[in-house]
Design brief:
The protein is an alpha/beta fold and 381 residues long. It contains 10 helices and 17 strands. The chain has helices at residues 69-72, 155-158, 161-184, 200-215, 234-238, 255-265, 280-288, 300-317, 329-340, 357-365, and strands at 4-10, 21-27, 36-44, 48-49, 57-58, 99-106, 121-124, 137-140, 146-148, 192-198, 223-229, 245-248, 270-275, 290-299, 320-324, 349-353, 372-376. The strands form 4 sheets. Strands 3, 6, 7, 8, 9, 16 and 17 form a 7-stranded mixed sheet that branches. A 6-stranded parallel sheet has the order 12-11-10-13-14-15, with helices on both faces. The protein has a two-stranded antiparallel ribbon with strand order 1-2. α3 crosses α4 (200-215), α3 packs across α9 (329-340) and α7 packs parallel to α8. The protein is globular, with a radius of gyration of 21 Å.
Length: 381
């Protein structure tokens, strides 16, 4: 096609925040024979903790927690003097995974699934080789990565689901399996405590999803939930549920003080930790808070980097480290329905025109955005 569309590339910002967001006019892609062309309406403004651009690692923090990232860089040998050095996800090398939009055109030989047709509202599952999410139009090779979005679910909210919400969902469901072993296994305990470690939106996702899924377990009244925050979200998290215990992991305190404070807030050593922190320090602290036989769940990208360092220590402490992958498309479909029906409430988010991407990056680096930042490419209302 001869028509052009806009593509935004968010690259690693430097100390002055200049020349980190680029806008190009690129050809509107042709429709693949067996796939579809998607008109991107919303895309999450993602960032990535980087040591160098070639060794980028996906952050599991929400955009509102960027001020906590400098201390998260320590385990990768990178030292910063300002949040402006923190790498945003490179839109050219690491495209936006949080994409929601409408089907613009369908290939002649495509096998449509889930009732998806031209004009259908969809969210994109982050499959291997996911296309650039910061372009106005993208193409997908087939329909296996497309999830229909119900009319009652705003696309701006749907755009938050493929990464943070999906990751939190798979972690919580893995925690349910761990709890079954702890509460119904051969060495069953009377009660179990779950500690969620995280920041901002991801911790809120995990807390709300855990509350939903734990409530359905036959032994739900034997499960206690606590949250360790890496920032000052303690008050907002405490408002989620009066029964939730919240402890702040302030870097101003010594490790032993933080561990003692956490164990005290949880009413004793914890049984399962959902660790969304990204540093060896966070993982080490989580292990110290576990009861014998306890389990700490870490995301796949973090586990691959930190597991070799902690395997022996976990064995010595008689605890376990469980690596959790990002989640499946079936889980994403379930999450779309749960959020659409109001059974799980999404964390706050803010929408900005794609033309303001440069300003969004500046605000992210200065922690001026509360909640998830979403870029808007088209107005379909």
């Amino acid at each position: 096609m001869s028509k052009l569309c806009r593509q935004v590339s968010i690259e690693s910002p430097g100390p002055t925040l200049r020349e980190c967001v680029f806008s190009f006019d690129v050809p509107v892609p042709d429709v693949p024979m067996y796939g579809a062309r998607i008109r991107v309406v919303y895309a999450g403004a993602c960032y990535r903790v980087t040591r160098t651009r070639s060794t980028s690692m996906c952050s599991t923090s929400s955009v509102s927690s960027i001020e906590s990232l400098p201390r998260e860089m320590d385990s990768y040998g990178s030292h910063t003097s300002t949040p402006a050095h923190i790498g945003l996800r490179d839109g050219a090398l690491f495209p936006g995974y949080e994409v929601a939009g409408i089907v613009d055109a369908i290939g002649k030989a495509a096998e449509c699934t889930d009732g998806i047709t031209v004009g259908s509202r969809i969210v994109l599952y982050p499959y291997e080789g996911v296309p650039h999410g910061y372009a106005e139009y993208i193409v997908v090779p087939d329909f296996k990565c497309l999830v229909p979005v119900p009319e009652q679910l705003p696309l701006s909210i749907a755009a938050m689901l493929p990464t943070g919400a999906l990751l939190a969902t798979n972690t919580v469901q893995t925690a349910c399996e761990c709890l079954k072993t702890i509460l119904e296994g051969p060495n069953q305990k009377d009660n179990a405590t779950v500690l969620i470690v995280g920041t901002g939106g991801l911790a809120l996702w995990a807390l709300r999803i855990a509350t939903h899924y734990f409530r359905q377990l036959p032994y739900h009244n034997r499960i206690r939930i606590s949250v360790a925050t890496l920032k000052d979200e303690g008050i907002s998290l405490a408002k989620e549920n009066e029964e939730i215990k919240v402890v702040q992991w302030s870097e101003d305190l010594y490790e032993r003080q933080l561990i003692e404070r956490t164990i005290d807030a949880c009413g004793g050593p914890v049984d399962v930790v959902l660790n969304f922190g990204t540093t060896s320090r966070s993982l080490h602290r989580s292990l110290q808070c576990l009861a014998p036989g306890g389990m700490v769940l870490v995301t796949e990208d973090i586990g691959e980097k930190l597991m070799p360092k902690f395997v022996k220590k976990a064995e010595e402490m008689n605890v376990n480290i469980v690596i959790v992958p990002n989640g499946t498309i079936e889980q994403l479909k379930d999450m779309v329905q749960l959020v659409a029906k109001g059974e799980i409430k999404p964390p706050p988010h803010s929408v900005y025109p794609a033309e303001e991407a440069q300003e969004v990056v500046r605000k992210l680096c200065n922690s001026e955005i509360k909640g998830r930042a979403i870029l808007k490419f088209h107005n379909i209302d």
